[in-house]
């Protein structure tokens, strides 16, 4: 197997939090990491977001609520952090709702249309937090987590002391009979990156022995890796692979 490296960078993770439509809280994530079927037995989770006024909560999609649930506390603890937001699914379900509404009524809600764009969630985040700082929204493919981290690393190379990274996906609802890859649950993962050498991420040549590509919900696999004692974690793709290493 050719293991040549195309790029490599290191960083520290000061803190991280995750929330999903089935799992929330460190203890629950630890149970899920030990038993993948744990989430299937859990009721739907809808974040309370009691720190927001009711009017603002009502305007948030389910994905945006998970983003606030995962990232709000980190933003409080690490203020003035540039934000990198990445999503594979974006506001896909809201877009489908709009298409159906348009076909039925020949019109759509301007507000809902405005909230269906890919950067709507960080726009709402900025307004909710009254934060006019630097933010980046990425529409990503299968390696969305690693893409977001590479972007955050580049921002730190420009002088940022820390970067808040948020990965969020809300898979297409099953009621839409479309052949599409769907994550096992909606989720949001937030982490604060700082310069350092705690973790090393390398893009390497593809593993020709890999039987299939890694799915786009790499953030969930990363959580399981973080909660394990494994020193390495690999994500395989058609033309390359990402190798995680703990120091």
UniProtKB/TrEMBL annotation:
| Pfam families according to UniProt | Ketoacyl-synt_2 (PF13723)
* Residue ranges of domain Beta-ketoacyl synthase-like N-terminal in the record: 29-245
User: Out of the domains of life, which is the source?
Assistant: Bacteria
Give the matching InterPro entries: Ketoacyl_synth_N
Specify the protein name.
Beta-ketoacyl synthase-like N-terminal domain-containing protein
